[in-house]
Amino acid sequence: MAHSAAPASSSSAAPAITPISLKAIAPWAVFLGVLMLILLYFVGAEQGATALFSGEDVHEWVHDGRHLLGFPCH
Q: Where is the chain membrane-spanning (predicted)?
């Protein structure tokens, strides 16, 4: 009396999962690493002794993140 809503499949084999090689991951890992270093610079060091931009704009944008990560700024 009870009927299944799922259609019956003829094969129960799951599709094979192919691993991703290190050669394919390496460029993305390097890109993300450089991006994280740039973000760390802007949060931790910008508007200090090594400021790339004049003014306080960058400091104000990353001010809360700077305190959250433990960087002193004032």
A: 25-44
